[in-house]
Automatic annotation (TrEMBL):
Keywords of the record: Signal
Homology family: Belongs to the OprB family.
Region (Disordered): 23-46
Biased composition (Low complexity): 23-37
UniProt source species: Phenylobacterium soli
InterPro entries in the record: Carb-sel_porin_OprB, OprB_Porin, OprB_sf
Designated name of the protein: Uncharacterized protein
Signal peptide feature range: 1-25
A Pfam family the protein falls into: OprB
TM segment ranges: none
A GO-annotated cellular component: membrane
Length: 448
C-alpha cells in the first residue's frame, strides 16, 4: 500500500510540475475581456486550439483533474494517496454539420486511476474526501456518455436520449464540484450513492425532456434504465442484461429574473422513483430481524427519493455568471427501509473574486451532514448485542457523519487552477469509534 501511495505522489508531482512550467513558458495573456453573464469564455492552457474545430461545428475539450490528499489524524492511521480523472469531450453541432437545426450530439470518454484515502486510512465508504477517485473502474478509457439532443419551439423544449447519466440534468449545480468531498461533488451523496442515479463516468440508457414554462420556471422529466453493470468495464456494453428496473425523476426549477438577474439564484425541488426491488435493512419476509433469523431482508418494490436544493448570489464581484459570493445548500431524503443513507443536508459558501486583484480565484466553505438509515442502525445494534459481524463488514454501529471543507482555488492562468484544501471529518464512516480525521489536500484542474 505504501508503494502505491508513493507511486501516486510521484505521478502527481510529475504531472503538476511540467504543467506549472508550461504555464510559465506561455506568452503573456491577452487583456481580459468582459465575461458574458450567461456563458463565460472557454479557457485552454495550450491556447485557442479548439476555435478552429468549433467554427466547423465540432467542439472539443480535454480536462485533467488530479488530487493529492493526506490524513494527518483520526481514522485508522496516517497516509497519503493520489487519484485523477481525465475527461475528453466532443459536442457536434447538427446545424453546422448536417443542416439539422437544434440538434447536437455529445460524447465523452474518461480515464480514472489512483487510490482512495477514505478507504485506506479513514475506514469511510460514505463521504469520500476525493471526488477524482472512482472505485471499480479499471480500463484505460471508459465511455462516459453518448447521446443526442434536440431543441424545439425556440429552445423552450429540449429532449435528449442515449447513453445518458442522470446527473447531467438532475440535481446539478455550478458550485458542487468546487469542492473535493463527495458529500456534494457528483451530486448530493444520497443520490449518486444509489445505483439508479448515474454520474460521470457511468451512464445507462435514458431519455429526458426539459420544458421552459416562463417566468423563470422550468421542469425536467426523465426515464432511465437502472442497471448496476453501467455498461460493463468499458461502458460499451449496451445490453439491457442486468437491468433491475427504471428510474423516473422529475425536477421543478425556479430562477428568479432568469439569465438577466444581477444576483442570480436557482431553486429546485426534485423527486425520483426507482422501480427496482431492494431488500429491507432490518426485517425478513416473516417480520423477524435479519440479525436474528439470518435470512435476507424482505423485498420492497420501488424506492422513492426527494430533494430540495438552492443557490443564491448574495454579493456580485463582476460580470461573470458566478462572479460573487454565493450561498447554497440542500436536503435529500431516501427510503430508510432499503437504503443505508437516509438523508443528507448541507450548506456552503462560494466566493469568486473575493480578492479584487484576483477576480478568478474562488474561496469555498462547506458543511455537510449525513444520517444513516435507522433500519440499518437497529440491525447493527442487534448484531453487536449478539456478537455477530456487522452488515457490510464495518467495525461499529453506523449513525451519522459530518464533513467540513475549506479551500481556495488559485487561477494561475487560463486553463490552470491549483486548489489547496482542508477537510475535517467527524465520525468517519458514520462510526463514533473512529477518531475525527484532519485531511490536507491539493487539486490541479487543467483544461488543455
Amino acid at each position: 500500500m505504501r508503494a502505491c501511495r508513493l507511486g501516486g505522489l510521484v505521478a502527481a508531482v510529475t504531472t503538476l510540475v511540467p504543467a506549472a512550467a508550461l504555464a510559465q513558458a506561455q506568452p503573456p495573456q491577452k487583456p481580459p475581456q468582459a465575461d458574458s453573464p450567461s456563458k463565460p469564455p472557454a479557457e485552454h492552457l495550450l491556447g485557442d486550439w479548439a476555435a478552429g474545430p468549433a467554427a466547423t461545428g465540432v467542439e472539443l475539450s480535454l480536462e485533467y483533474k488530479g488530487e493529492v490528499v493526506g490524513n494527518l489524524s483520526g481514522g485508522h492511521g496516517h497516509g497519503l494517496d493520489y487519484s485523477h480523472l481525465i475527461l475528453g469531450e466532443a459536442a457536434l453541432d447538427g446545424a453546422k454539420l448536417w443542416n439539422l437545426k437544434g440538434f447536437k450530439l455529445y460524447a465523452a470518454f474518461a480515464n480514472v486511476a489512483g487510490n482512495s484515502l477514505s478507504a485506506d486510512t479513514l475506514g469511510d465508504d460514505f463521504l469520500a474526501v476525493q471526488d477524482a477517485y472512482v472505485p471499480n473502474v479499471t480500463v484505460g478509457a471508459r465511455l462516459a456518455w453518448l447521446y443526442g439532443e434536440q431543441s424545439f419551439a425556440g429552445d423552450r423544449v429540449n429532449v435528449a436520449a442515449g447513453r445518458l447519466p442522470v446527473h447531467r440534468d438532475f440535481a446539478r449545480s455550478d458550485f458542487y464540484c468546487r469542492f473535493m468531498s463527495t458529500a456534494i461533488c457528483g451530486g448530493p451523496h444520497t443520490l449518486p450513492a444509489q445505483p439508479a442515479f448515474t454520474d460521470l463516468p457511468f451512464a445507462t440508457w435514458g431519455a429526458r425532456a426539459q420544458v421552459k414554462l416562463g417566468g423563470g420556471l422550468s421542469t425536467t422529466l426523465g426515464a432511465y434504465e437502472v442497471n448496476p453493470k453501467h455498461g460493463g468495464p468499458s461502458g460499451l456494453n449496451w445490453s439491457t442484461g442486468g437491468s433491475t428496473g427504471t428510474l423516473y425523476p422529475v425536477e421543478l426549477a425556479f430562477a428568479p429574473g432568469g439569465k438577466s438577474a444581477r444576483l442570480p439564484g436557482h431553486y429546485k425541488l426534485g423527486w425520483m422513483y426507482d422501480t427496482s426491488a431492494y431488500p429491507d435493512l432490518y426485517a425478513d419476509a416473516a417480520g423477524q430481524p435479519i440479525a436474528v433469523s439470518g435470512r435476507p431482508g424482505r423485498s420492497h418494490r420501488g424506492r422513492p427519493t426527494g430533494y430540495a436544493l438552492f443557490d443564491q448570489m448574495l454579493v456580485r464581484h463582476g460580470r461573470g455568471k458566478t462572479a460573487g459570493l454565493v450561498a447554497f445548500g440542500g436536503y435529500v431524503r431516501s427510503d430508510p427501509a432499503t437504503f443505508r443513507l437516509a438523508q443528507l443536508s448541507f450548506l456552503g459558501l462560494s466566493d469568486e473574486g473575493l480578492v479584487a486583484s484576483r477576480p478568478k480565484d474562488v474561496a469555498g466553505l462547506l458543511v455537510a451532514h449525513t444520517q444513516v438509515s435507522s433500519s440499518l442502525s437497529r440491525t447493527e445494534r442487534l448484531q453487536a448485542a449478539l456478537g455477530e459481524p456487522f452488515t457490510g463488514g464495518v467495525d461499529g454501529v453506523q449513525r451519522s457523519e459530518w464533513v467540513v471543507e475549506a479551500n481556495y482555488a488559485v487561477h494561475v492562468r487560463d486553463g490552470l487552477t491549483l486548489m489547496p484544501d482542508v477537510q475535517w471529518v467527524r465520525w468517519p464512516g458514520a462510526i463514533r469509534g473512529h477518531g475525527d480525521a484532519l485531511v490536507l489536500g491539493a487539486r490541479a484542474d487543467i483544461h488543455f
